[in-house]
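Changelog excerpt

This revision adds worked examples to the README so contributors can see how folded entries look when concatenated. The first example is reproduced verbatim below.
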Amino acid sequence: MSIKQEINRTESNLVDELDKLIIPCPICNRMYHRVAAHAQAKHGISIQEFKETFHYTTATQACAYRLLRLYGGRSDIYIEQIYKGHGLSGYITIDGNAPETPVWNSFLGTRKAVTHLRGGRTFGVLFRDYYTRVLVFDFDFYPGTPISNQQLYVERIFDPLYKLQIPRRCIHVLKSGLKGFHVDLYFDKFMPTQVLLTFARHIVKKAGLDGLEPCVKVELRPENPIGGRGVRLPLGVHIATGERMMYYVPPLGGVGGGSNSQFKPAPNQFHYLLYQTKQISRDDFFKYTYPKVIQQEKFIRKQEQIERQLSVSIPTFTPCKGNDNITHPYPSYPPPAPPKRGEGNKNQLSSVGRRHYTREELDDF
């Protein structure tokens, strides 16, 4: 089965997969779809009490709650993707605090996330000020770039992350559905946005992904500690193309080994969302990763300072006579003739460190 056929099969099965998804009951570990109804029948816990404790009642709501918790965005202000016509899409910002916003549309919660997962509407989150729980590397490629080339660029970012103690299980790759890929890093607690931006820019520089426009452009989300653009939530349908934003599994041996080493969609998207979206520990990040970033950045700045101090100014060359388009390394052309024998500087030393004596001086001896 080709990669394209596998993508189409996975997309067509997503809604059925969501309806048939079963998860363990948090009390007895038996697998059910309607977990809260089982808990009420077997354990005497009301559905309302179960929902207040675990924030979901069904496996579908569990996926929605997990999705919103991973991204940790604002719930009162969010974005929605809309179709503009002629194959183009855009985003509108919905402000739940605005008086003209209907009550039913003023909050990005589990119900809207379920609609997003089913493909009815496509939502995205806006980030909180100064803190975030996700860092997104957004790869946008030039139209027509082969998928194999896109994957090679995406794979560049893995090695710098590995060297900074970011485990492979915490690096999540998604196909955006239009222009490229997303590489997401999830954190178990809120992180200072400025710290993650410093870390992300260091990674992009180490991976050699800066300054490659228009072939590939890597943008960061969040892009600023305050404000900035949002990011579309995974597993939703791209309004313009109809493709799902799915999780992909990079091969362990890299993507440079032919068709068998290409990125492939995760076999079970919602199982991946619930159980394989591993998060980076904030304590480990500040203990092992961020000190290395600071140390390497200081070293890079020191090297740049030394290079600036040791830089030699390039001499200005004057044009050759008779041809203004040719330059010559001498201030005048033709170059001056070498001095005749015996007319050199008397104080000049020879190659063995002795003076050059004139004939008259030698006769005096």
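The second example, added in the same revision:
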Amino acid sequence: MPKSEAMPPHRAPSHGSDARANHSPAEIARMEAAMKQCETDMAAQRRRQWEALGARDDVESRLTHALMASTVGGASNQPSTAQLLEAAAVAAPDDADVAWYRAAHCPKDAGCDRDRAIARVLELEPGNLDGWLMALGEAARSQHDDATLQALLERAAEASYYDARDGETFARLYQATRDLPLPGSCKTPLVVRGWRQLFGNAPSGPGAADMAAIWAMAMQAAEIKAYSPIGKLCRPKDAPLSRERIAACRSVLAMLASNASLIDQAVGMSAMVELSAGTPEASAWRERYRNLQWLQAAHASNRQFDVESLVRRMIEGEVPAMQAELEAHGRWPAPAGWLPDNERARSLIQTGRPPPDPRR
């Protein structure tokens, strides 16, 4: 989803495969039109909030104002997120959050000096793995030689902590918009029916916090991490890894696997299962990966919308919050002997290796 496109309620995942079975095409069209109008009017509320934030000069307001810029519409000469973050960096040159966001939203095709932005992150947070992953990703995109990439990977392996600002965009945007007045167009019977159709447990139509959570979640999801460089360096297909490469990869991937982000754990654990094959740690990594697969499968079956649960996952951390929800219902850890349906995941858990490639 492009960063300029929020996720209106009428495009949210449906509650079950037969979500529209009880409505005629004409009624579905009316509900969608009503929900689209609701979202349009809500977007106007967000734009007014964005303009209010732009009149403030504190760091948090500057950051939130910048992050909202690509979603509020306006004139073609309106400052972009990257431009507003550049201005924020000038106003607060030593703020680590500003530096991180400036690097994360710094597209080269917009004339932004991404190398300089990443360098500033490393200056302010030399022990943060995420800055080194940014540097590694940029070096890979610039097609640097293997020795340069290995040196950066080894430097990343020396990181003492990992802070990728997971959920912070969500938290800022949700905080800024959750108390906005709900437009009258969002309270109509058609919107209430449409909302219930999408989210089967909803007792009524959307509240302001519901709208804010869905929109903020879409903006957070647009901040995609680049795992490709780590995958290429730590999972080559054509040659065995050197001892130095394995050591660096294990350090980086173990830190990813311990983060609260679901995707970080999935990337880190699956790779660590392969890298630990044949070692004393192998069975422990396979069991951790099995429990992660169970966590995902158990939650995938629950399609009900719960704004409190969504906020908790985004702010407290996806994996800890999801695990606590399963524990509260006596469903954690994974049942003995349980295996996922996915062939690759099942093979990793059982053998520590992916299944054979049928093309070879």
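Reviewer comment on example two: The CA atoms of residues 112 and 323 lie 40 Å apart. The first helix runs from residue 25 to 54.
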